[in-house]
Amino acid sequence: MSPLTRRQLLALGAVGAGAAAVGAGGLWWTSSRGGETLGGDRALLQPEVLTSRDGVLDLALEAAPTRVRIGAREASVQAFNSSLPGPTLRVRGGDTLRVAMTNGLEAPTNLHVHGLHVSPEGNGDNPFVSIEPGESFDYEYVLPQDHAPGTYWYHPHRHGHVADQIAAGLYGAIVVEDPDPVPVARERVLVVSDITLDGSGNLTEVSPPQRMMGREGETVLVNGQVRPEAAAAPGERELWRVVNACPSRYLHLTLDGQGLRVLGRDVGRMPEPVEMTEVTLAPGNRVELLVDTREGTSTLRTAPVDRGSMGGMMGGDTPGDGPGDDEPIDLLILEVTGDPAGEPGPVPAGTALRDLRDEPVGARRTIDFAMDMGMGGMGGMGGPGGMMSFTIDGREFDAERTDQRAQVGTVEEWTLTNSSPMDHPMHLHVWPMQVMSEDARDVSGPRWQDVVNIPAFGEVTVRVAFEDFGGRTVYHCHILDHEDLGMMGTIEVS
Ligand code: C2O
Ligand code: CU
Ligand code: CU
């Protein structure tokens, strides 16, 4: 296909499986299956979209090894329903999401709906479930009627295997639709992940220092593609739903030459979009961006983020292991050409966000994230098996132990401290956190997130409203190697 033809097709939004479709919400998408051969290998694809109907989305997900094309390589990965990323699930407040999950892997797994405010009990968003190889499990998640709209995601959460399975390709996006959506020319889901493949396209082994640092894959993907291209006309408004699905890599995003506003982060939508030139996403974070297109070619780029190192603790730096010393990476090319589009309609005001600063606090606690040399600290590696230990309040994860008990109906204030030389992005399941202050600086305006970065040797204060459901679940570092190494605690809310 000549570049010109490809560009024309891109401008028409017709690249893909020849199956560009307009969904109920006027959404534009193409199937990821077969799109690469028909549409030219550079056009950005959208994962398959599964949308709830009459309040229900019922689907089967199989986690299994599969072969996909990544860049120029045939790769052996693990994915949901043979697609990397897995299908995008679109639901609304009040919906029931049912997932019949099958484990086609050789290791135990399970499913977590990251960020959804749903019950953690039984066959809900229960992180203690283990689905053995060959077995299945039927999940059912019931979203409250007033569930915050936004971009969420799903991934396995079987302790000890989380980083490996996500690094292998097991993730997908969840969209909770906004009852009063912002008019846009099109939406794009952008699932950013990273992966390391050897010359024959196989997943590589991860070394103990890489696990301790938190592995960063060599190749950064958007929807499973290497630096794909998207096209738009000038004067359009697009909504980009960006998910950081990397096990450990932080993203620091810029998009030169385009109007960029943040519509939402992690949970819900801001009352008004905020202009931004750059945005940082810790692993697990999402951001919703409004892109006001301007003629020209722009690049969505991620710059390195300094998230600390083990240098001092390891008795010397591990060359090549320090994140933050690499070059910026081009993620996506946006080509804006053609006749200018008409003015998009105004952005409807979002509803005011709840502000827990005005609410009484029922309990306060301090939770400390630490890295310890373990017994002896021999050779700087420490601990049995050469692993440093990753702890919360001095303890490694134990599924049987309950670390925190909170009461349904109370607001708590948590001070999250980090006594280690690396950042730890803290994630709490089920109940979102309002960030109160970061390193003693107050945060202005209510900011709701479900992953909050605790800087090295720093601290963050958050408030949480434990409401709508009780149950037992977890909080952990979303550098998933750290989580697998023990940096996770349990909480029982009753
Ligand atoms: Cu995205 Cu407990 O995880
Ligand atoms: Cu989660
Ligand atoms: Cu960590």
Structure explained in plain terms:
- It contains 5 helices and 34 strands.
- The chain has 494 residues and is mainly beta.
- Strand 1 and strand 2 form a beta hairpin.
- The longest helix is centred in the first third of the chain and has 10 residues.
- It starts with a helix and ends with a strand.
- The structure holds CU-O-CU linkage and copper (II) ion (CU) (2 copies).
- The site of CU-O-CU linkage (C2O) has 9 residues, from strand 8.
- Keywords: Metal-binding, Oxidoreductase.
- One of its GO terms (molecular function) is oxidoreductase activity.
Give a quick precis of the structure:
With 494 residues, the protein is mainly beta. It has helices spanning 3-12, 35-39, 162-167, 208-213, 480-484, and strands spanning 21-22, 28-29, 49-51, 56-70, 73-80, 88-91, 96-103, 112-114, 136-142, 150-155, 172-176, 186-195, 219-222, 229-232, 237-244, 251-255, 259-265, 274-275, 278-281, 286-292, 296-302, 329-336, 363-372, 389-392, 404-406, 410-418, 424-428, 433-438, 441-442, 448-449, 451-454, 459-466, 471-477, 488-493.
